[in-house]
Amino acid sequence: MRVLGIDPGSRHTGYGVVENVGDRLVPVLFGSLSLPASMELPTRLGSIFTGIRRIIEQASPTEMAVEAVFVSRNARSALILGHARGAAMAAGIHGGLQVFEYSALEIKQAVVGYGKAEKSQVARMVGLLLGLHDLQDPHAADALAAAVCHIHARSFPTLYSPAQRP
């Protein structure tokens, strides 16, 4: 199984492709699409869609895992984040991928073992799991974590309730 994980954002969208090879998790491709704040939102959304489509063409994932929108106090920020997620998800569907969503809590639980882990703990554990000892991009780390979470959910379905998982 080869999974494209997405950490959506209108300015920085992290991506990470992880392949499950036997009992190992192998990083295939990861990074982030960084877009200038001066770029108009519709143009940024188009860039996210195009960028994710290129990644799908390059890495050939079979499924996509996207971090779900968290509830925000700022409705405008949540709406913009929702647009970025939508652009990424549309790119995945357009690329023929089945798309799955996971909350930040589920991703942290699957990767670190603690749903309220700090971002630095997630990045460190992703680095350990994937043999990436110098993972500097926090957006890529979060995207890789989403991919790892999905692989765990598919590999160990009894650990995830049927209401939440594929």
UniProtKB/TrEMBL annotation:
GO cellular component, one term: Holliday junction resolvase complex
A single GO BP: DNA repair
Localization: Cytoplasm
Record carries keyword Transferase: no
Single GO MF descriptor: crossover junction DNA endonuclease activity
Binding site for Mg(2+) 2: E67
Cofactor comment text: Binds 2 Mg(2+) ion per subunit.
CDD domains per record: RuvC (cd16962)
Keywords: Cytoplasm, DNA damage, DNA recombination, DNA repair, DNA-binding, Endonuclease, Hydrolase, Magnesium, Metal-binding, Nuclease
Main location: cytoplasm
Residues of the active site: D7, E67, H139
EC number of this enzyme: 3.1.21.10
Alphabetical list of Pfam families matching this protein: RuvC
Enzyme class: hydrolase
Function summary: The RuvA-RuvB-RuvC complex processes Holliday junction (HJ) DNA during genetic recombination and DNA repair. Endonuclease that resolves HJ intermediates. Cleaves cruciform DNA by making single-stranded nicks across the HJ at symmetrical positions within the homologous arms, yielding a 5'-phosphate and a 3'-hydroxyl group; requires a central core of homology in the junction. The consensus cleavage sequence is 5'-(A/T)TT(C/G)-3'. Cleavage occurs on the 3'-side of the TT dinucleotide at the point of strand exchange.
NCBIfam families: ruvC (TIGR00228)
HAMAP family: RuvC (MF_00034)
Subunit: Homodimer which binds Holliday junction (HJ) DNA. The HJ becomes 2-fold symmetrical on binding to RuvC with unstacked arms; it has a different conformation from HJ DNA in complex with RuvA. In the full resolvosome a probable DNA-RuvA(4)-RuvB(12)-RuvC(2) complex forms which resolves the HJ.
Protein name: Crossover junction endodeoxyribonuclease RuvC
Gene: ruvC
